[in-house]
Give the backbone structure.
Amino acid sequence: EVESVKAVSPLYSPVSGEVVAVHSELVDKLDQLAADPFGEGWIIKVKLADGASLDGLLDREAYQKQCGES
């Protein structure tokens, strides 16, 4: 779950596995989510249950291209 001042929302993931790290310092540095989402703005780290779950995912470039087409 992701908690804000006004709501608690589920955190959805396209992969399954075990959460092995939570970026607890992010609570005090929420600007990192937008400023550096692929670096210091990470939320959780997951040990994948099945590496094949990555097969259907887009990489960053393909995702940005798809978003631009919408």
In short: DSSP finds two helices and four strands in the chain. Residues 60-69 form the longest helix (10 residues).
